[in-house]
Write a structure and sequence with these properties.
homotetramer; 366 residues; alpha+beta; five-stranded antiparallel sheet; 26% helix; globular
Chain lengths: 366, 366, 366, 366
Amino acid sequence: MAGSVFGEILKISTWGESHGAAVGAVIDGCPSGLDINEEYVQGFLNRRRPGQSAFTTQRSETDAVNIMSGVYEGTTLGTPISMMVYNQSQISKDYSDLENVYRPGHADYGFQVKYGIRDHRGGGRSSGRETIGRVMGGAVAEKILDRFGVTFTSYVSKIGNIEIDRSRFDKDEIMRNSLYMPDCIAAAEAEAYLKDLIEKKDSSGAEVECIVSGLAPGIGETVFDKLDARIAGAVMSIGGVKAVEIGDGCAVSAAVGSVNNDKFRMVDGKVTKETNHSGGILGGMSDGSDIIVRVSFKPTPSIYQKQNTVNRDGENTEIEIHGRHDPIIAPRAVVVVESMIALVIADLYMLNSVSRMDRLENIYKK
Amino acid sequence: MAGSVFGEILKISTWGESHGAAVGAVIDGCPSGLDINEEYVQGFLNRRRPGQSAFTTQRSETDAVNIMSGVYEGTTLGTPISMMVYNQSQISKDYSDLENVYRPGHADYGFQVKYGIRDHRGGGRSSGRETIGRVMGGAVAEKILDRFGVTFTSYVSKIGNIEIDRSRFDKDEIMRNSLYMPDCIAAAEAEAYLKDLIEKKDSSGAEVECIVSGLAPGIGETVFDKLDARIAGAVMSIGGVKAVEIGDGCAVSAAVGSVNNDKFRMVDGKVTKETNHSGGILGGMSDGSDIIVRVSFKPTPSIYQKQNTVNRDGENTEIEIHGRHDPIIAPRAVVVVESMIALVIADLYMLNSVSRMDRLENIYKK
Amino acid sequence: MAGSVFGEILKISTWGESHGAAVGAVIDGCPSGLDINEEYVQGFLNRRRPGQSAFTTQRSETDAVNIMSGVYEGTTLGTPISMMVYNQSQISKDYSDLENVYRPGHADYGFQVKYGIRDHRGGGRSSGRETIGRVMGGAVAEKILDRFGVTFTSYVSKIGNIEIDRSRFDKDEIMRNSLYMPDCIAAAEAEAYLKDLIEKKDSSGAEVECIVSGLAPGIGETVFDKLDARIAGAVMSIGGVKAVEIGDGCAVSAAVGSVNNDKFRMVDGKVTKETNHSGGILGGMSDGSDIIVRVSFKPTPSIYQKQNTVNRDGENTEIEIHGRHDPIIAPRAVVVVESMIALVIADLYMLNSVSRMDRLENIYKK
Amino acid sequence: MAGSVFGEILKISTWGESHGAAVGAVIDGCPSGLDINEEYVQGFLNRRRPGQSAFTTQRSETDAVNIMSGVYEGTTLGTPISMMVYNQSQISKDYSDLENVYRPGHADYGFQVKYGIRDHRGGGRSSGRETIGRVMGGAVAEKILDRFGVTFTSYVSKIGNIEIDRSRFDKDEIMRNSLYMPDCIAAAEAEAYLKDLIEKKDSSGAEVECIVSGLAPGIGETVFDKLDARIAGAVMSIGGVKAVEIGDGCAVSAAVGSVNNDKFRMVDGKVTKETNHSGGILGGMSDGSDIIVRVSFKPTPSIYQKQNTVNRDGENTEIEIHGRHDPIIAPRAVVVVESMIALVIADLYMLNSVSRMDRLENIYKK
């Protein structure tokens, strides 16, 4: 309960410091009978791997996943799936001057006060490498959801003030540009903006969107474990996230009910909605339309400018961060956002299975 | 685990349908030795009570709290605190025509699919009356936090396009106007806007802010149980919430790191920050400055206009909602937002107590 | 997490002090579509009600259950089921002389040290009345299990040195004698033994057995949430229990593997076992044969003899307990043991539903 | 929630199949500031290592622990401690004839029904190697408890009908004989008994005792999370355990209250008890005297005799188990029992820290 365990039925425990031996995850509660292998999980990890463009850190980590348990001859056993990635390319000396100084925008100060000790190298447990465990879990969760026909589309929707033009939305474009934007023109503008910021030793915020399609209605528990509540908690737990919106999000405060209410209509014998302001969630449960989640990431706090700060001895000082840092968090975080949402939805799908006695009876009648 | 239990150490279970016998909450894990009585809790419940102005439903519920256990001669025992409020003024016939029809913007459809049965009267479990249990819990949580010097300021910051002017911010004004706004001019404008909407049988969205002061640094666990993650999940679980922002929130996507990073400075021997873009949370832990949470509520979905919808038999139909409904959710929800945040912070304060061995040892040395 | 919440999917929160306003339970996670009403639950509570014979306390509590939520027109909604029983017949003055003295064999001392305060009247939270909430939960759990064909036979198997003769086992006899023994001759002997102890102002220990029939194989999760582990924890949590045995229990320490191993045999196309030393549980999962649980209760600690003890001021003193106390715990605890086992099995049935992907898929294909 | 996660604040997730790549554990919630290294943990693992005598399997596993995270320069960080042991000496072919047959006394049948798939090699997840993760957790838990002055004495107290003579109890003897018995004469008799059983291709049950000294009073939560309840659930979850007793255990059913009640007495200004029938636990909380736990292990189910059984196709057949198997579970399980009890007590110590508001306040005043 120090915070590294997540989920109710599909439960993930992640572990690992940035510059320790390895980082990993244990996923308990994954059903038996799923096809999972290292190649499949690696596909997810590659989406967050550094070193792929000018906009991600130049560390050449391969982040090769090792499945240690829970899978036998390519099929899940129903037992805990343990996975890990060895930490490579650790240049700890880059961090030696940070041992006693609190980096602005980072967790250093909180960690020191909370624990009285911290592994200062690369942020330790609060490093971005912590998200490798999340993505391992996301890979497993998406494998489960795939069997229910649930699919994900995730991308960067805004960088600085450059937003994608939704009339140009092209899903295939997402994987073609280094910024994971579904609009090549916005991507090109954003690249120019980022190059300029790099020169200024600065960094940029951004927005990530995740669209989940194919959910059955009724997924999500009432009151505290609502689908949107669980998603918001999951996504806000990713480093750098400062806002989570569902559907129209913040815009609803200026809306009126007659417009914001999505009217139901039968289409081809199916309950549908004329609009989707709700972002696919009503009363905390999926309503059968696309789930829309929007996430705001703050600019990377590690910038190369000299900054005011204090040290562990309570003295004012200055800091100049070196090392290798992305000028923007969002592109590599796209798969992390998707993974957290997948973990939540898979968990809630499993929980929803036991909400009705007639369903439960059917299971044991077979 | 159907979703009505919340918290790790300070654990609350809420229960009750809108038109059942009562609604209530059981709070387990509250420390012994706190002064709590019905008058104190009633003060919190009164902040969400209907019937107080033109902008809340005209039902005249007194919502008088009964403490059933866990308190002996005005002091908490450390055992579960059970509280309840009897449901009064139930006019169930108002709802009889809703039995087979799904109200747009409501949980009806999801409930029917999920459970195959629902108490359609007044929304049943998904009614706003469900929040009474949350406020009972919030009252207990704030009593705990008061002992740590933590205080709350909560209010409506925006209705439609009418925002408070922060230069006119007046904390005392919050309880003086019926909309709980800290700016009497904005409140007057918003009242006019709402009156107009009522005439048009429409409703408005709004924004609520909660500022939490006095937190020790280091509150919040790493990775999944971060302070902001837990707050986002807690607040998003309130009916009608579509967005949660911490600090600068959505605005961070357009920010640059050199500005967004709050620089640390020693002031009077204390670690402080030159700015508070982070909203008091860094790396998921409190950083010693004010916690700033902003919440967007959608417009009340129950409006008196005729709306397209479908019924349980899968037929297109129209619905005209009667009964008594607020034209805006936010004013009565201010105390609910505050309560959920208080529950989270109290829980994380208790968890933080056991994060260091030296602290633990001290407890048992006494 | 102060200990009054139990279960994973089927989750129960109990509350209430012996001499407070009421005692109750909230059951969250019960599937929708079950027939439950107050008469049904009352049948369970009546099995633990005092005042029915010479061997139970003469307090004439009716313990009438009130269902406050979660049931609509006799059917569960899938929402939390809140139930309570008002405390009657409270003669608190009986306890006034116990305020500062620790009763031997009771929780008084631990409570005082742990919380620094306690409701000394009738044991407060550690009273036997606390088990009312457990039985409410058991009633709900058995209703679920009934739909899976699972049935319970529970009884007192031993009082002092008087054991039932298994060749005379008569299920119908259980409800005919005041000691809930399935052997009328043993019951008569035990009654004589207890009458003698009452005269001597003493009390007796006893043993309760619970046989659960009809379980599907495979119920119980691996490693920590094994069926036997969960049962042992659940049953040991009942006041006065000092031992829990599964199948042959303690006797296995003297057994050899060639005998203790239950050999599998196909009978009528079904996997069966030639013997049932395992008590229906292998590797923590049900094996298709009867689950056998044996529980040892200590003698009632409240006896009318003068006893040495200490008081809150740390002085040696003597205590003479008055009031109304059963000379034996077990008969009224039979339904409590059964209830705890039912809660565990129902929870694990629900969890087992999501252990295989093929099962999960089938649910959503419908 | 498939059962491999344990604990509330001190939370352990174990993973690994017998013949997979490795077995391990992740411990979350361990306080910062403890001295832990691989040598320390190895000392615990060595107590359960096979190949040390005639009475343990001849597999020569070294079971060398690797600490992967959570410890920095020999001190715990407060972050998850990940540990693992690579599986060596895997002779999977020994098990190939078991693929389709259910071993009597084993989990094979339940696993197959539950998951529809299993790793049959060496029991897979239900192998005794699963306990390595428990012992890793126990090592961490004992390190925490050591700081509170809590110590453990664990040993085999009975094998077959050979019990230790308590007048000969010698703590130092425990580590001197291969059976971990505190009485060298009983150990010699038991060795002869076991040798005889080995020749007969049979196996023996046994009893393990664990005495925990130095607990503060008041440890354990009320109702469901009582100290004895948590211990019983924890210990019963170990493979082969069929009974758990606290204090006088099963014997209490034949006792009378006047004797069974431990009378309190002040000794040297401390609350003590004249006897310890309660085994150190009253009302589910520690009472300041020694905690006494007694555990009954069934005989090893893997015996070399031909046994009746059935196969996966539902046919009667015979089985003859080969491979390397201990003729008795208990000696190597002593440290496992101790570890599970340590995990429970450490968790409850941490929970008890937040039971009183005055204690909580003191933490944050510093």
